[in-house]
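thread: overnight batch results

M.L. [08:02]
morning all. the overnight job finished for the chain we discussed friday. pasting input first so we're all looking at the same thing
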Amino acid sequence: MVKSSGYDHNDFAKVMALLGSLYQLNRERPYWLPARWEYAAYLVSPLCLGRGYPHWHRSIRIWTTGSEDIVDIVNSENPDESAFIHVHPHYRHLEAAMVEWPSKTLRRETPGEGVSSGSGPCRWTRPGSSCWPGEDTCGQTASST
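M.L. [08:03]
and the structure it wrote out:
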């Protein structure tokens, strides 16, 4: 049985294990490397918090087995509308739920103002592309910083 839940800092080692194993299974598929997760957790997230954005953990959903092993992850690198999916090949049947979660959950948030009115469904990006053109790492347009 597989269940989904929010991410907690105690899940860090399990995320590292999944990302490492996904890379070993298929080095051609653009999964995040463990170093990218560390970068987002320890550099991008604190920078965004300092700018008034919500905690990065709110933009992460994990899927775990009954033994609590993480098998799939959806995450944003920052509190914007971008989402990344990391799917273990044996759990591809969960992809529809993985796409649905950020589409309903992740919305552009403005520091101090909360969720922007009229924000649309999340935008999908592929791993390796953290920002859209003209945006900095926190989803703000370069002209607004």
